[in-house]
Amino acid sequence: MSLKYYTHGRRDQMKVALTFDDGPNPPRTDQVMEILDSRGARGTFFVLGKWVERWPQAFQRMVEKGHTIGNHSHLHQAHLGDFDRAEAAIGNLLGRPTRFLRAHYFNFFTCLYSPVAMSRDMKIVDADVNPADFAKSDPAAIIDAALNDPSLAGGSIIDLHDGREFDDDARRLASPLPMIEALPAIVDGLQARGFELVGLDDMELVDPIEWRPDGRGTFATAEVRSAIQGLGGKSN
């Protein structure tokens, strides 16, 4: 079975999707939502199942604010079944299946072994604008990377991080701070260019890319590496 993923929506519509990975991460996720709400913007939050289980009330606030929810795995590790385990946690509170999924580290190979990921109703989503905010401490650098990316256009999907997979609370809480400081300028800059900031459920995704096995299986568990070898893909 082939695996296809999307990096953008229709280019003829002035819509941009701000997406946020690795939450919920209270109170950082709440700070992100306050910025979005104050500017009439919607976001898409690709959440981790383990954090949904740990902070169900924070997750419910995301839902109540009307933002789009996506599946970003349970443990943020390349384990078989990680998306399915996350879906159980997310769907239990959401009350319905998720429609969007993002592979952790964009390692799509684990999706092939997930009934959730390969469901006909699921869209696997990458991004065409990746500011790498998780690796930057200067908010100005994040703003520049988001607003001046050559790929930024109608239909763009921007990948940011309101949380992290770290179990260390201090590290996880500190990591999004530069992005949060940059976010008002990013939102204002996009809206000044005439972009409407929408959830992925308000964007028509187009031009799917067919994934081919690559060398990122190096970071997988032995179980996953064995499965990749059975596909004929590289595992190291």
Shape estimate: globular
The radius of gyration over CA amounts to 17 Å
In CATH terms, what is the architecture?
Alpha-Beta Barrel
Q: Which class do the helix and strand fractions yield?
A: alpha/beta
CATH H-level name... which superfamily? Glycoside hydrolase/deacetylase
Helicity level: 25-40%
The largest pleated sheet is described as: 5 strands, parallel
- The number of E-state strands comes to 11
Strand fraction equals: 15-25%
Specify the CATH class: Alpha Beta
**What's the SSE pattern?**
EEEHEHHEHEEHEHHEEEH
What is the CATH third-level topology name? TIM Barrel
Summarize this structure as a short list of keywords or feature phrases:
236 residues; alpha/beta; TIM Barrel; 4-stranded mixed sheet; 8 helices; 34% helix; globular; disordered C terminus
Describe the structure.
The protein has helices spanning 28-38, 49-54, 56-64, 82-94, 139-147, 169-174, 177-192, 222-231, and strands spanning 4-6, 8-9, 15-23, 43-47, 68-71, 100-101, 123-125, 157-161, 196-197, 205-206, 209-210. It has 236 residues and is an alpha/beta fold. The chain has a single domain (4-231), classed as TIM Barrel (Alpha-Beta Barrel). Strand 3 (15-23), helix 1 and strand 4 form a beta-alpha-beta unit. Helix 1 runs parallel beside helix 7 (177-192) and helix 5 packs parallel to helix 7. The protein is globular, with a radius of gyration of 17 Å. Mean pLDDT is 91; it is low at 231-236.
